[in-house]
Amino acid sequence: MRRNLVVGNWKMHGDIHSNETLLNTLITGLSDYKSADYVVCVPNPYLHQTRSLLENTGIAWGGQNVNQFEEGAFTGAVSPHMLTDLGCTYVLLGHSERRVLFHETNLSAAARFDASIKANLTPILCVGETLAEHDAGLTEVIVASQMDAVMATLNDENFAKAMELNMVFAYEPVWAVGTGKTATPEQAQEVHQFIRQRIARRNAEAASKVRIIYGGSVKAQNAAKLFSMPDVDGGLVGGASLNAEEFIAICKAAN
Ligand SMILES: O=C(CO)COP(=O)(O)O
């Protein structure tokens, strides 16, 4: 049985004062809900603050992206080790905003996935199709290409390590991100099942263990239905993760 996972992606939001209020409210609000896992992915400058508030609370924290190299002359970049040094256990990779706005590719996401595994960071790989791709019936083709790039990059040793680290996949249809349009639970289930089958081509045991979470306008009001689908193992929450009450309600729906 897979444990549900709810990840808050703060994107480029927050400041020291509001973060403190938000995180303290989460700590109190989630203290009695221990049957799911929770993560907040905060902007890098606030990782230190997040660690000092969340350490030993059971809520984990992570980065929103990472560079594939260990160190070097890469101005503005952050290495996997820098994230683990700040206590991160997770990192988001291949988010559609990174792909669309910052021109990241399937191959670069795969390289960062590999580098994260080597640094003991659990990657959360985001996959999903745009509205045009969705309307053209290309959802499975796009998601398969995003998944297969990672599968092809991981050698057997790193794939085994990715299993140990409980790698996560997130289905985020781009047309549902920040738009208020959510995939129906049935639409999400269909793609999640497809993603699981894609992992099974590499390793059946991994496919049954891997958590596949849904992202795209997840709210308190639609979370329970989405999470009740057999292959939906929780959510990746953007806007609603900035509102403590709403995020807590979503986390409770995952219990
Ligand atoms: O991009 C997302 C999470 O990574 C989803 O964002 P919203 O929940 O704001 O639609």
UniProtKB/TrEMBL annotation:
Q: Which PROSITE patterns match?
A: TIM_1, TIM_2
- Gene Ontology cellular-component annotations: cytosol
Query: What Gene Ontology terms for biological process does this UniProt record contain?
Result: gluconeogenesis; glyceraldehyde-3-phosphate biosynthetic process; glycerol catabolic process; glycolytic process
> Is Cytoplasm one of the keywords UniProt gives this record?
yes
* Keywords annotated in UniProt: Cytoplasm, Gluconeogenesis, Glycolysis, Isomerase
CDD domains in the record, alphabetically? TIM
UniProt-annotated binding residues for substrate: 9-11, 178, 217, 238-239
* The protein's assembly and partners: Homodimer.
Which family would the database say this protein is a member of?
Belongs to the triosephosphate isomerase family.
Q: State the function annotated in the UniProt record.
A: Involved in the gluconeogenesis. Catalyzes stereospecifically the conversion of dihydroxyacetone phosphate (DHAP) to D-glyceraldehyde-3-phosphate (G3P).
For this entry, the protein name equals Triosephosphate isomerase
Q: From what organism does this protein derive?
A: Methylotenera versatilis (strain 301)
